[in-house]
UniProtKB/TrEMBL annotation:
InterPro entries: AAA+_ATPase (IPR003593), ABC_transporter-like_ATP-bd (IPR003439), ABC_transporter-like_CS (IPR017871), P-loop_NTPase (IPR027417). The lineage of its organism: Bacteria, Pseudomonadati, Pseudomonadota, Alphaproteobacteria, Hyphomicrobiales. SUPFAM superfamilies: P-loop containing nucleoside triphosphate hydrolases (SSF52540). Belongs to the ABC transporter superfamily. This is Iron ABC transporter ATP-binding protein.
Length: 275
């Protein structure tokens, strides 16, 4: 201590950034390989309660692999994943079920079961995890359908009868079926027109604000990153290269981050947002 300069003392007494925030998901030193091919190498990442984290990275960088690993669908060769304060390697089956019930997922593809109506799709997690009378499940499903901004008559429609934007909303309704604390969205706005995408982003932001929902959003969508993400993490070279606010991304000199966030398309979006 004696050797510390004034600025060292200041740094030592200042709380680390985000120290007072509740970490809902803690990924530490996670490595994943497929055969000889390493996809993630000692990757670490925190997600705080009530934030929308945008997760970006080049195509093939491993964003979906990380998501699947967090969800326990891929095997990791090292590292730990803590969710809601529980180490996923140490929990028993009952705890795993309890954790799964607090997580909602919207996968990039295969969003809905095509042979089921929207209402039946939303009820899939309820049937899997709860034992409720049909009437109550119908009421709950209709509430979720309304929550995501779908008209009540969408409930009895099949996915093939819906637009792309409505399918995403219906899939979101299913992800929210059990009132999760955190939802994982894998490229939720891909395939939507810009207005549909902006509406979807607005809906997600509203859920963060009204329900305190935590959102982990894998995305390539610069509009989403500029408009609704509270924090951004960039995957590259098998780990999180940079993480922070949009301002941090815009200030980063890391070459991929720089070309992504300060490239021609990003500049146009930034200008539009400022105007
Ligand atoms: N089950 C698997 N077996 C072997 N290799 C896999 C498997 N799953 C993913 N990979 C490889 O891991 C790498 C990362 O894939 P991933 O789908 O996570 O990329 P991504 O960042 O999500 O890309 P995109 O933005 O295009 O969706 C790719 O090279 C992919 O081929």
């Amino acid at each position: 201590m004696e050797h510390m300069q004034d600025q060292d003392l200041e740094a030592a007494s200042a709380p680390p950034q985000n120290a007072d925030r509740d970490v809902i998901l803690k990924v530490r030193d996670v490595s994943v390989s497929f055969g000889p091919k390493a996809v993630l190498d000692h990757l670490s990442l925190d997600i705080y309660r009530g934030e929308i984290l945008g997760f970006v990275g080049a195509s093939g960088a491993g964003k979906s692999v990380l998501l699947r690993t967090i969800l326990g669908l891929n095997r990791k060769s090292s590292g730990t994943i803590e969710i809601f304060g529980l180490n996923t390697d140490e929990i028993n089956d009952a705890e795993r079920v309890a954790v799964d019930m607090r997580i909602g997922v919207l996968f990039q593809h295969g969003a809905l079961f095509s042979a089921l109506t929207v209402k039946e799709n939303v009820q899939v997690p309820m049937r899997e995890y709860l034992d409720l009378p049909q009437r109550l499940m119908d009421e709950l499903a209709l509430l979720k359908i309304k929550l995501v901004g779908l008209p009540a008559d969408a409930a009895d429609k099949y996915p093939s009868e819906l637009s792309g934007g409505m399918i995403k909303r219906a899939a979101l309704a299913r992800a929210l079926a059990l009132d999760p604390d955190i939802i994982f969205l894998d490229e939720p706005t891909s395939g939507l027109d810009p207005i549909g995408a902006a509406d979807f982003d607005e809906l997600v932001a509203k859920m963060r604000d009204t329900m305190g929902l935590t959102v982990y959003m894998v995305t390539h969508d610069l509009d989403s990153l500029f408009s609704v993400c509270d924090r951004i993490a960039v995957l590259g070279q098998k780990k999180v290269l940079v993480e922070g606010s949009l301002q941090d991304m815009l200030a980063s000199e890391e070459p991929w981050v720089k070309s992504y966030f300060r490239g021609k398309r990003a500049r146009q979006i930034d200008l539009t947002a400022r105007n």
